[in-house]
């Protein structure tokens, strides 16, 4: 196939407290041949250790990843969550994400079973 826009770039963001990791997320910037060749971003694996939730760590790593996406010229950032909790949706919406704008679909290799949604 002709027309490669270049390799994707990934960045990991880590929040620490007392030298210990407490929250993380991954940003993947994807080159693009549309939208004036502006890249887009995926944010995945937004995780905060249970003992450190509601202290701003998740918000900090998510905010840093979005800032990096905007600084790189990404025209959008997408995020998938396995959670079905309303509080999780409110967390992401407070960070600037909107539910219902697009539909996410997931394919897995044959034999790989998805884990149940987080409750």
Tell me the domain tally.
1
| Order of the strands making up the biggest sheet | 1-2-3-4
Task: Give the percentage of residues in beta strands.
Answer: 25-35%
- The level 1 CATH classification is Alpha Beta
Low-confidence stretches: none
**Overall CATH architecture:** 3-Layer(aba) Sandwich
The string of secondary-structure elements, in order, is EEEHEH
What is the assigned CATH homologous superfamily? Gcn5-related N-acetyltransferase (GNAT)
Helix content, binned percent:
10-25%
Mean pLDDT across the residues is 89
Give the terminus-to-terminus CA distance. Answer: 42 Å
What structural class do helix, strand and pairing data support?
Answer: alpha+beta
Descriptive report:
The chain has 119 residues and is α+β, with helices and mostly antiparallel strands. It has a single domain (9-94), classed as 3-Layer(aba) Sandwich (Aminopeptidase), CATH 3.40.630.30. It contains two helices and four strands, in the order βββαβα. The chain has helices spanning 57-71, 86-94, and strands at 9-17, 20-30, 40-48, 77-79. The mean pLDDT is 89.
List keywords for this structure.
alpha+beta, 4 strands, Aminopeptidase, four-stranded mixed β-sheet, 119 residues
């Amino acid at each position: 196939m002709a027309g490669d826009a270049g390799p994707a770039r990934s960045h990991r963001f880590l929040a620490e407290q007392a030298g210990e990791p407490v929250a993380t997320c991954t940003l993947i910037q994807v080159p693009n041949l549309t939208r004036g060749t502006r890249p887009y971003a995926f944010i995945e694996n937004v995780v905060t250790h249970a003992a450190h939730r509601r202290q701003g760590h998740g918000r900090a790593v998510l905010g840093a990843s979005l800032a990096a996406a905007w600084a790189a010229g990404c025209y959008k950032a997408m995020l998938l969550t396995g959670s079905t909790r309303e509080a999780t949706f409110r967390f992401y919406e407070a960070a600037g994400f909107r539910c219902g704008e697009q539909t996410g679909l997931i394919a897995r290799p044959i034999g790989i079973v998805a884990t149940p949604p987080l409750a």
